[in-house]
Amino acid sequence: MILHLYIARRFLVSFGIVLAVFMAILLPIDMADQLRRIGSDQGFSAVLQLALLNLPRSITGLMPLFVMLATLVLFLGLARTSELVVVRAAGRSALKSAASPVIVALIIGGLSLLILNPLVATTARQYDLTLARLSGLESRSVSVTGEGFWLRQGTGSEQTVIRASATNSDGTHLFDASFFTFDADGALLERMDAREAVLARAAWTLTDVKRWPLAQSDNAEADAELFPTLTLPSTLTPEQIRDSFGNPETVPIFELPGFIRQLNDAGFAALQHRTWFQMQLSSPLLLAAMVLIGAGFTMRHTRFGKTGVMVLGAILLGFGVVFLRRFAEVLGETGQLAASLVAWTPPIAAILLAIGFLLHTEDG
User: Fold this and answer.
1) What does the mean pLDDT of the chain come to?
2) Number of H helices, E strands in the chain
3) How far is it, in rounded angstroms, from Cα 286 to Cα 70?
4) Which CA distances in Å does 8 have to 129, 135, 261, 291?
5) What angle (nearest 5°) sits at the alpha carbon of residue 186, between those of residues 192 and 180?
């Protein structure tokens, strides 16, 4: 037990060092990228704010790499000081020696889900809003709630809020839609209700429309007009609608199942969000796989040589697993494979492969 705690503590120290080093590297790089995005006229504080808001998302994406490097640092350090030889001489197998780092990696993955994931969702959402504000792109937004599907479009002089009870898969065909037009001061100008609304060629085509001129009438109901069809100019495109709510990172994992149900009720397949949810749940297993892969390549004494080759092999195999997982994620988002299958198969396969390699190395 004492030995397990010692190895676990060494692994935590290695992980902390790797995390601190990469944070120090990522922050200035991200600041340079944000400076390119918003321009130098926004000032240093705005660039720093964007970089800090984006940092948790970058850390989450690179977490498998951090765990892999921490594993390499741990076992190379134990091998260099001959502590690994003593551990093996005491009768500890390779799997038992790697057990405590694996458990720590699972705990790190669990804490990432419970703590870091909601933080990333909050900062990512704030980052998108801040970037849009600094870039002057705040005229469009999309929201899906229990009351239906909401859109916002407009220019500097006028805003239109759109609500629909349901829509098609890309948000371009609305059912039971209401259009509320406001002026620049927020005063309501008119309301239009339509049985259907279809977005095409920079305009909404409304069917079975009733229009209330709220700003120009004392009795809007008496002055209401009926139209079989009506065309309303739009600044939206199907791509902009999908992109506005298509980033599942901005939804905390605890709220994601409810958000997926709301998307389904609104008419969206929510494949991207389903896949993302399963990928997040399986992320602790991916971190455990990174530990086992790193241990399989470095749990040997340095006198055997080829340390650099073994480290390179571990990193390449780790990147291969991450690439396979990302490729599977794309298949899940497009609906070609089930979300649970693409999320859980790569880390489980990597764990089994790493365990087999560890046993082979120990027997050999």
Assistant:
1) 84
2) 11, 7
3) 14
4) 40, 46, 40, 12
5) 10
Q: Is 74 exposed, middle or buried (0-12, 13-18, 19+ CB in 10 A)?
A: buried
Which amino acid, residue 144? V
- Nearest CA to 211 out of 181, 234, 233 is that of 181
Tokens of 40: 């130098």
Write out the E strands in 6-88.
Answer: none
**Neighbouring residues of 313: CB distance < 8 A, sequence distance ≥ 6:** 297
What does 201-256 look like in DSSP terms, one character per residue? SSEEEEEEEEEE--SS-SSTTTT-EEEEEEEEE----HHHHHHHH--GGGS-TTTH
pLDDT at 266 over 70: no
Here the tokens at position 208 are 């079975």
Q: Examine the pLDDT at 288 and tell me if it is beyond 90.
A: yes
233 strand-pairing partners:
203
Cα separations (Å) of 157 from 104, 154, 183, 185, 192? 55, 8, 6, 9, 19
Burial class of residue 100, CB neighbours in 10 A (0-12, 13-18, 19+): buried
Of the candidates 157, 128, 162, which has an alpha carbon nearest to the alpha carbon of residue 243? 128
φ, ψ of residue 339 in degrees (nearest 5): -60, -40
3-state secondary structure of 297: helix
Distance in angstroms (rounded) separating the CA atoms of residues 41 and 241: 29
3-state SS of 139-170 is CCEEEEECCEEEEEEECCCEEEEEEEEEECCC
Q: What is the pLDDT of residues 225-251, one digit of tens each?
A: 899 999 988 888 777 776 666 578 888
* 89 has a pLDDT exceeding 70: no
Q: Return the domain boundaries, the chain.
A: 2-135+268-363, 141-235
Q: How many CB atoms lie within 10 A of CB 258?
A: 11
Element containing residue 24 per DSSP (H, E): helix 2-38
